[in-house]
């Protein structure tokens, strides 16, 4: 198809789309570079599977996830799949690739490099918003608000380049708080220019699949590193069952109705649903690494803290899934009843109890109990009476 060299941004309104909008090939290609970044984060956690390592994962996961969210929400509103947009997306991919290069030592020797990549990515996004506002007057209120908020964050990240630790990380933290607060305070501006919510839901689901994919990689890596026998086959299948269970719990029962609160300016509801995906994906990443540690425990039983961290990671995922589901129920549109929230919370509590006894249990016993706690959720989902969401 012949494309004009320059095509100005256009406002993508969900109700004017011809059929349901689907992810483009470029969006799927864009996601691949984040696979690399998340793999780097998971590798670092595997090397240091401890409380410190988990904190490091969370600290670095946030800016990576926020870059993906920023690009995704811009594209749902203004992407026209023109040549300029394609080149900008490829540029953003190159920036994230450089961010991934700096992840290993992002909190020490590569902190400046990591910060520069975040600054570069967010600066490109701000330029996109300003460009869209210039060509689309009705979106200018929103684009100017985002540019002001995101620009304030970038200033703090720039200042951090000249500061020592811990002041550098304090600037990062304040900058991220401003970033997250900017959409939360957009209110009526979002009502005028809402994102394509069905498309947004699909994109968020695809990112969740990326993280779940890392768990499958971890299971394969874990089993390939030990002797191939009946025990390793069983524990590998148990590890896969945990990943499969989370896929089921997310995609079969999660409702995206809270996002539609954006159209009424209820940003607190919509962003509670959206921002809950951040700890969920962090938990899923940590769970994947934990599964690999438990599999390796067949030969060399891991220390108690590693077994406890694995349990807490799974419990975190169940807890966040409960919160996301509860948010959907309170809107009045949900695939299933509120009881599923209590099933998730009950599963999380059961696994936390297991964590408190980690020093008394083998890694095989722990992964069996955790797999049972996840699989029983699927049984509850199947036998729970599901209802169609209200129109």
Short overview:
It contains 14 helices and no strands.
- Along the chain, the helix and strand elements come as HHHHHHHHHHHHHH
How many strand units? Answer: 0
Report the mean per-residue pLDDT as an integer: 88
Residues in helices, as a percent range:
over 70%
Q: Uncertain segments of ≥5 residues (pLDDT<50)? A: 386-391
**What is the overall number of helices?**
14
Q: What structural category arises from helix and sheet content?
A: mainly alpha
| Rg over alpha carbons | 22 Å
Distance between the termini: 38 Å
- Please state the overall shape, judged from the principal axes of the Cα atoms: globular
Strand content: under 5%
Largest sheet geometry: none
Short key terms for the protein model shown above:
391 residues; 14 helices; mainly alpha
Descriptive notes:
With 391 residues, this protein is mainly α. The chain has helices spanning 25-47, 51-78, 83-102, 111-135, 140-160, 167-184, 188-192, 197-224, 230-253, 267-275, 277-296, 304-331, 339-356, 363-383. Helix 1 packs antiparallel against helix 2 (51-78) and helix 2 (51-78) packs across helix 11. The two termini are 38 Å apart.
Secondary structure layout:
Layout: H1 25-47, H2 51-78, H3 83-102, H4 111-135, H5 140-160, H6 167-184, H7 188-192, H8 197-224, H9 230-253, H10 267-275, H11 277-296, H12 304-331, H13 339-356, H14 363-383
Helix pairs in contact: 1-2, 1-3, 1-8, 1-11, 2-4, 2-8, 2-11, 3-4, 4-5, 5-6, 8-9, 8-11, 9-11, 9-12, 9-14, 11-12, 11-14, 12-13, 13-14
């Amino acid at each position: 198809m012949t494309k004009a060299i320059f095509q100005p941004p256009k406002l993508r309104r969900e109700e004017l789309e011809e059929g349901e909008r689907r992810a483009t090939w470029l969006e799927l290609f864009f996601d691949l570079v984040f696979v690399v970044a998340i793999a780097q984060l998971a590798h670092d956690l595997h090397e240091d599977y401890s409380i410190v390592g988990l904190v490091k994962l969370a600290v670095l996961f946030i800016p990576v996830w926020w870059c993906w969210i920023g690009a995704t929400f811009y594209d749902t509103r203004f992407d026209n799949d023109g040549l300029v947009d394609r080149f900008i997306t490829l540029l953003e991919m190159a920036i994230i690739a450089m961010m991934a290069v700096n992840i290993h030592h992002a909190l020490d020797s590569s902190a400046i490099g990591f910060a520069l990549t975040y600054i570069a990515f967010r600066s490109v996004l701000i330029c996109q918003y300003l460009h869209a506002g210039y060509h689309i007057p009705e979106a200018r209120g929103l684009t100017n608000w985002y540019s002001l908020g995101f620009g304030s964050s970038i200033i703090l990240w720039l200042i951090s380049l000249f500061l020592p630790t811990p002041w550098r990380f304090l600037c990062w933290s304040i900058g991220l708080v401003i970033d997250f607060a900017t959409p939360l305070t957009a209110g009526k501006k979002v009502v005028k220019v809402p994102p394509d919510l069905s498309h947004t839901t699909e994109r968020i689901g695809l990112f969740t699949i990326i993280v779940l994919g890392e768990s499958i990689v971890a299971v394969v890596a874990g089993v390939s590193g030990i002797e191939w026998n009946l025990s390793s086959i069983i524990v590998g299948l148990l590890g896969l069952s945990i990943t499969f269970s989370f896929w089921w719990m997310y995609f079969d029962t999660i409702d995206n109705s809270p996002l539609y609160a954006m159209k009424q300016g209820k940003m607190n509801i919509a962003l509670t649903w959206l921002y809950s995906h951040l700890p969920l994906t962090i938990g899923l990443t940590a769970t994947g690494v934990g599964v690999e540690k438990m599999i390796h425990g067949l030969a060399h039983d891991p220390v108690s803290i590693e077994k406890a961290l694995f349990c807490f990671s799974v419990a975190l995922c169940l807890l966040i899934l409960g919160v996301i589901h509860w948010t959907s129920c309170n809107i009045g549109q949900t695939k299933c009843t509120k009881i599923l929230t209590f099933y998730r919370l009950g599963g999380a509590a059961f696994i936390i109890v297991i964590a408190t006894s980690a020093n008394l249990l083998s890694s095989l016993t722990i992964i069996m109990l955790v797999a049972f706690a996840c699989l029983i959720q699927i049984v509850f989902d199947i036998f729970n009476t599901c209802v169609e969401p209200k129109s």
